[in-house]
Amino acid sequence: MRQGNYLNGILTVNALLLAGLLWTQVADAPALAADAVAGPPVRNPLDAGAQRQRMIDSINTMNRSLDGSLRELTRTVGKMNQTLTSGRLRVEVSNSHEIRGEAAPKRRVRVRDE
Length: 114
Hints:
The protein is an all-alpha fold. It has helices spanning 2-26, 48-86, 96-100.
C-alpha cells in the first residue's frame, strides 16, 4: 500500500509540472518571464579616436615611468661596475671548511671593510 501512495504522489507532481509547462506554452504571456526593455538610445556612440588617444596617453605614461626605472638601473649598474673594477672589493670565503666537509676552524675569520 505504501508503494502505491508513493507512486500516486510522484504521478501527481509530474502531472502538475506538465500542466505548468503546457500553460506557459499556450498562454499569451508567460507568467514567469517579463518583457525585455531596452535602455534609452545612446546619443554619442563611443568615440574610437578619443579611446585610442587615451590608450596612447597611457602607453606614453608607462614609457616615461620605464625610462626613469631604466636610468636608475643604469646608474646602479654603473656604480657596481666601478666598485668591481676599482679593486676596492675584497672577497673572503669564511665557510670553506663546510665546502670541503671538514670541521669548523677554532679561530674566527674577520672580514675587513675598506
